[in-house]
Amino acid sequence: MNGPIAIAVSGGVDSLVSAYLLKKQHGDVFGIHFLTGYEKPVESGSGGIEALGRQLNLPVVVVDLKQPFKAMVVDYFTAAYRNGETPNPCLVCNPAIKFGALLDEARRLGASRLATGHYARVEGGQDLRYRLKRGVDQSKDQSYFLSRLTQDQLARACFPLGTMTKAEVRALAASQGLQPMTVQESQDVCFIRDAGYADFLIRTTGIRPQPGDIVDTAGQRVGTHSGLHQYTVGQRRGINCPSSQAYYVIRIDTRRNRLVVGFKDDLTADSCRVTNINWVAGIPDGPVQLDTRIRYRHTAVPAMVSPVGGDGAVVRFVQPQAAVTPGQGAVFYRGDEVIGGGWIAG
Q1: What is 209-262's CATH superfamily?
Q2: pLDDT tens digits for 170-186?
Q3: Which residues are designated catalytic?
Q4: Under CATH, what is the fold of the domain 5-175?
Q5: Which pTM was predicted?
Q6: At residue 279, does pLDDT exceed 60?
Q7: Do residues 231 and 225 make contact, with C-beta atoms less than 8 angstroms apart?
Q8: Does the domain formed by 267-344 have CATH 1.10.510.10?
Q9: How far is the CA of 213 from the CAs of 154, 225, 235, 242, 243, in angstroms?
């Protein structure tokens, strides 16, 4: 695929090194930075981003994606909490914003592909299907967050850091005198800065806390909560109910405004349903054993995945798993290859 490559620059070391590598290998490269409306003042100005471009003698275009970011990412985040789910905004942002609205802007500016600083790999096979694979640095692998990219999006995706470790990236930046705007690692929820999730939801989305009962798994009242938006499945802190053992959040019952708690053993589940699956490698013909990650900081575990309809599956874990959380992503792997990813429904 010929033509310039656009590199999404955020101000961090990963995108800066990606830009350096692309310029060295490809030559015809320009930077593109998008505004979400949730940046700190120093990040929202064009001066800092353009300074990154000057380090590499690279033009950088700033595009305003505040409206689609609010509509597709922040509103999704809010709706998930209203429904008693735990959202994963990166799984929405990558296909909808970075390889959706931003890729569209990059192509309008003449780019043939869009590169990002993700630690992942994409390969084109002889069968013309693009394969998404883990980054070689297992501690930084971000293929989980890219599992909802379509074949058309993968065809135009470029991940220069997929074969590098984080240590190698930092060493290369130091050797070339590359100075990122920030040395902090990117956050899971980039639009929440200083406040916690609960404060953000109250302050910016109109959610109003509704106190209610905390009940155990037998339905017995053990305390009160000040708003379900403060909790997620598996959470231990903030329950504040005396007991012989520590309580954990087992379920969030939005219909009755109840927080269901139990002990650690109550957290495990041997199966779950997954909906709205993006089958990156095509829909399996029938039940298939795949390694399954049920959240980003989770080691993929063997499970029998049985497709249901075109975009659903029942997942039965070989060993029961803790804190299988509605709203989080379930991503299926065969070795290093991402087979598909969808939403845990319970």
Answers
A1: Adenine nucleotide alpha hydrolases-like domains (2.30.30.280)
A2: 999 999 998 887 666 66
A3: 93, 190
A4: Rossmann fold (3.40.50)
A5: 0.92
A6: yes
A7: yes
A8: no
A9: 46, 6, 16, 15, 16
